[in-house]
Specification:
Two copies of one chain form a homodimer. Chain A has about 450 residues and is an alpha/beta fold. Chain A folds into two domains: about 280 residues, Zn peptidases (Aminopeptidase); about 120 residues, Alpha-Beta Plaits, CATH 3.30.70.360. Chain A has 13 helices and 16 strands. In chain A, the strands form four sheets. A six-stranded mixed β-sheet of chain A has the order 1-2-6-3-7-15, sandwiched between helices. Chain A has a four-stranded antiparallel β-sheet with strand order 10-11-9-12. Chain A has a three-stranded antiparallel β-sheet with strand order 4-5-16. In chain A, strand 1 and strand 2 form a beta hairpin. Chain A is globular. The two termini of chain A are about 20 Å apart. Chains A and B meet through strand 9, helix 5, helix 6, helix 9 and strand 10 of A and strand 9, helix 5, helix 6, helix 9 and strand 10 of B. Chains A, B: This is Dipeptidase. Chains A, B: Pfam families: M20_dimer (PF07687), Peptidase_M20 (PF01546). Chains A, B: Keywords: Hydrolase, Metal-binding, Protease. Chains A, B: InterPro entries: Cyt/Met_Dipeptidase, Peptidase_M20, Peptidase_M20_dimer.
Chain lengths: ~450, ~450
């Protein structure tokens, strides 16, 4: 049966299966969802078996378990390892959702739910393409699946798992659908990712909350101090002021900057879509360079003092921030992490104490466009979307992609089908049904081309 | 009966009565405590009647009701109006309390509870001194009481109440026990208070939370921006950078600076008590000047982005801060409020939108030491504490003290009995039983001297 017909006939079942996954709030950041993690892993195990895997199992790790499945065609054939993650981001702030985050709804040709795209929807594309290849007897290579449950918290247990199971996970290429395209009519393949470093900062001033009238003006306020320190991390030109931060950052090659400049990009439309009057970033670089090839620094969360209703006056004892930096290829996240800690400690004034805790991190990644699997992916996109995909670097981080290369020695092809409008990590995450269908077709064509 | 003997014989009852008030969590900042406000007001009404008032009543206002009571001795005699407040601050963070905030406990000669000092304990001093004067037939002047329930949220309904009841509240002097002394062995009377202005700042960047990987580096982060703006409010010399902020600030007169310099003050002990290695404040002023005669700026609360467990990466849509400035006499809080709003709007970068909401405010206050009621208070302290109290300016704000003067035309004498170690507004608020007893005696002696 033709793949398009197969999708048409089976779509209600595909969506039922996807919705059964979405309804499990597998939020890895919140310990109260431990049971949901297990339930979600188990549901994937069943679905992978039903899709045609010879075997599928739950494998323990130091943290949430992983789901492993495989379909062996021949010991001589090459092997594709499909990686995905079954955990999702927290759904807060809940009041901004138009429908419940864990009750998927279809409206305007889109699935609305946390995980609709990232990564349950995209993982389902892989599984349904695999199902078609198996049922139609078209598979010419072995396929393995490894789905983890800690991607959104930085995959703390994955490295140890990879090291412990190098033989099991042996493959010729890793296939991942967890990135996005330039647009619905502008298919693209991701050839570069940014790395990540993440820290929590705790500033302690006085040993207890003080009356701001009795002490204000004479005792340093840790929130004021935290703000002053955070304001010293990015300079006026949008450059990160940490000494040696840029030491390993390669200047973007002129050829690549030219290619980026050719990507159709409407800055006015981009600003309008996110509702800002002006953009801000590093001097000397374009928006597309700033959000993909250049490092960034963001305060992801801040809190301290009285944050309830009304107007309590207080000179608080403590203030906190969660901060992150997106890194580019060749920046070592552990080195950057140390540089950051050193920099913060070097600017701590004597009137507060500051603790900086590195939380997690990962390296950037580059995929060469000469890789046979990359070219198979390019063919898949071309057939499904009717045009050759652009090769682009993206600003997001999948720290484990570089870990795959480092630990398993395997390159990854990033066949991502998300759109910016999918609002992943935000309220009203959604995923286009049209893209879902085209995605399945693109992965089927990848398998055909890779097997040939 | 001698006042000391009276206190000794009646203390268990005094404490029972005080504890019955403390057990009512009359937190004005939290709307869910509306019923507690009414219960607390009613409890005071009963206690004022039992203490000897001719009548006591609950009077409605636009917000929480007030308790009014009076004892008329003679139409020709002067009148003392005792002001106090029955509301308390929120008790958060609860985990830092050694005993439950609304279950008073006596340990180490101190009462431990929210409101033990501010202002239930101090108000009880006034009521028990009044009770003694009435029962012993010593009262030679009229006494009125007005207890409000919104002091900790800036007394939003009091001005309208004062204007509506000028005749009822007519008096020669207002007596307030809601300030603190320099030390248990260093009695002092407060002759100056700082004013207050308070704002909430809302910074909006993108119209939704964004993925910090896909947008980070190209789109301004509202938390980073908020921190940068807050860092521009106090300059390197500890001066507030808002244009015209100091226009109406009087330089502290040389004579007063000399008096302040004579106040026994151990900076090392002060630092040790609050657990900081260094102090910070306006260049050119001493610590005691900085926290009493000079303005201050504090971020009382800040929040935005992901503040839960773990490490969510996000470029948030919004960031918030609650900020306040302590003002000195002659600074108009409404003018300062406008200057602040104008300044913030003048430094808002084009890539975010900022809303600044003035929350509440009040003027500073000065009490002349030549006032007869001040001198009666001085005598009261001298008898109770065995030494003449120092006249000092304090850094806290009771905005309504200047409103009393403006609206009712009455000066206030601030007979406060708190200690810095009482931890008002903080976890583990407490009040010394010894001070409680001496306070009652001091107020009794005030009444005797004032009536003479």
């Amino acid at each position: 049966m033709d793949i398009r017909q197969y999708i048409q006939e089976n779509e209600p079942r595909f969506l039922d299966e996807l919705f059964s996954l979405i309804r499990i709030p597998s939020i890895s950041a919140l310990p109260e969802h431990k049971d949901d993690m297990l339930a979600c892993a188990e549901r994937w195990r069943q679905l992978l078996l039903e899709a045609g895997a010879d075997e599928a199992m739950i494998m323990p790790s130091e943290g949430n378990p992983l789901v492993y499945a495989e379909k062996r065609v021949s010991p001589e054939a090459p092997t594709v390892l499909v990686y995905a993650h079954y955990d999702v981001m927290p759904a807060e702030p809940l009041e901004l959702w138009n429908s419940k985050p864990f009750e998927p709804e279809i409206r305007d040709g889109r699935i609305w739910a946390r995980g609709a795209d990232d990564d349950k929807g995209q993982a389902m594309i892989q599984v349904k393409a695999f199902e078609y290849m198996v049922r139609e007897g078209l598979l010419r290579h072995n396929v393995k699946f490894i789905f983890e449950g800690e991607e959104e918290i930085g995959s703390p247990s994955l490295n140890a798992f990879l090291k412990a199971h190098q033989e099991l996970l042996k493959a010729d290429v890793i296939l991942v659908s967890d990135t996005s395209m330039l647009g619905a009519d502008l298919p693209s393949l991701t050839t570069g990712l940014r790395g990540l470093a993440y820290w929590e900062i705790e500033v302690t001033g006085p040993n207890r909350d003080l009356h701001s009238g009795h002490f204000g003006g004479a005792v340093a306020n840790p929130i004021n101090t935290l703000c002053e320190m955070l304001a010293k991390i990015v300079d006026e030109d949008g450059r990160i002021a940490i000494p040696h931060f840029y030491d390993d950052v390669e200047d973007v090659p002129a050829a690549e900057r030219e290619m980026i400049a050719r990507i159709p990009f409407d800055e006015e439309k981009y600003k309008k879509a996110i509702g800002v009057k002006a953009l801000k970033g590093e001097k000397g670089y374009s928006t597309l360079e700033r959000n993909s090839c250049r490092p960034s620094f963001d305060v992801c969360g801040i809190w301290g003092g009285y944050t309830g209703e009304g107007s309590k006056t207080v000179l608080p004892s403590k203030a906190y921030a969660k901060v992150s930096s997106r890194l580019v290829p060749h920046q070592d996240h552990e080195k950057i992490s140390r540089l950051f800690v050193d920099y913060i400690q070097s600017i701590v004034p004597e009137y507060v104490e500051v603790k900086v805790t590195p939380m997690h991190g990962g390296e950037g990644y580059v995929c060469p466009i000469t890789l046979p699997a990359y070219q198979a992916a390019e063919k898949g996109f071309t057939k499904a979307f009717g045009q050759k995909p652009l090769a682009v670097r993206r600003g997001g981080s999948i720290p484990i992609i570089s870990d795959f290369e480092r630990i398993l020695g395997i390159k990854t092809v990033l066949m991502g089908f998300g759109l910016e409008s999918d609002a992943i990590h935000s309220p009203n995450e959604n995923f286009s049904l049209d893209i879902f269908r085209k995605g399945i077709e693109a992965v089927v064509e990848f398998h055909k081309a890779f097997g040939a």
